[in-house]
Write a structure and sequence with these properties.
- The chain is of the alpha/beta class.
- The protein has a single domain, classed as Rossmann fold.
- Helix content is 37%, strand content 15%.
- The chain contains eight helices and six strands, in the order βαβαβαβααβαβαα.
- Helix 2 packs antiparallel against helix 8 and helix 3 runs parallel beside helix 5.
- The N terminus is likely disordered.
- It binds adenosine-5'-triphosphate and magnesium ion.
Length: 221
């Protein structure tokens, strides 16, 4: 009888797929999100960036989020022309509150441990990270890429990166991206007030918004 030596397969760090995760409510998705994702993909040589429209994030519970089907479809439309971009239903498929840490764990399972994940956030989102569920664990299962965002000071972002890196022994990369002072809040308010949103977001998303009457009754952010 032949002798079989069972060897536990160990994946070399270099063999791992490098995948960016772009989380957001995308209500609606705009060029700020797309430019950030593409700049990070290019800089880190990522094989793909997966956009994850938030399901029911606890930090936005007081806000009147649009239906998740609309947010998912707008994200799909906006990313369709980029072969490196994908959209995941990991969060929109779930009932109840959704947390980034659970979503990243789910991705590790879906990729059978063969991928390394870079969670992409704007400067504002990184400021809020301490309020997220299980931050300790999150820093162990992904690296972060913190992108500059107009209105948020570079020094503050760098201080925050230094503080979080030390506190959680995690990895946060800093990237300066082309500055686009665009926000979904501003787009929603503009649509509600009949102000043009042309060139702030892909035309196909703009058309989708008007076709479905989104944001027309928006009273505030
Ligand atoms: P809202 O105004 O509803 O909060 P938003 O424009 O901030 O919308 P989100 O869906 O909240 O968009 O953001 C998703 C992610 O994209 C966050 O990490 C956020 O920091 C980042 N982001 C959004 N807009 C920009 C931008 N213009 N430049 C860089 N990063 C951005
Ligand atoms: Mg936001």
């Amino acid at each position: 009888m032949g002798l079989f030596i069972m060897r536990k397969e160990k994946t070399d760090e270099n063999e791992l797929l490098q995948i960016g995760i772009m989380g957001g409510t995308f209500d609606p998705i705009h060029y700020g999100h797309l430019v950030a994702a593409e700049a990070v993909r290019d800089k880190f040589n990522l094989q793909k960036v997966i956009f994850v429209p938030a399901g029911n994030p606890p930090h936005k519970k007081e806000k009147n989020l649009s239906n998740k089907m609309h947010r998912y479809l707008m994200t799909l439309l906006a990313t369709a022309s980029n072969t490196f971009f994908e959209v995941s239903t990991n969060e929109t498929d779930k009932q109840g509150y959704t947390y980034t840490v659970d979503t990243i764990k789910q991705f590790h399972q879906q990729f059978n441990g063969k991928a390394k994940f870079y969670f992409i956030t704007g400067a504002d989102a990184l400021n809020e990270i301490l309020t997220w569920k299980d931050v300790d664990c999150l820093f162990k299962i992904c690296e972060f890429v913190a992108a500059t965002r107009p209105g948020f000071k570079h020094e503050q972002l760098l201080d925050n990166i230094q503080y979080l890196t030390k506190k959680y022994d995690g990895k946060i990369h800093f990237v300066e991206i082309p500055s686009l002072a665009i926000s979904s809040t501003d787009i929603r308010l503009k649509v509600a007030n009949d102000i043009s949103v042309k060139y702030l977001l892909p035309e196909v998303v703009e058309t989708y918004i008007y076709k479905n009457g989104l944001y027309s009754n928006q009273l505030n952010s």
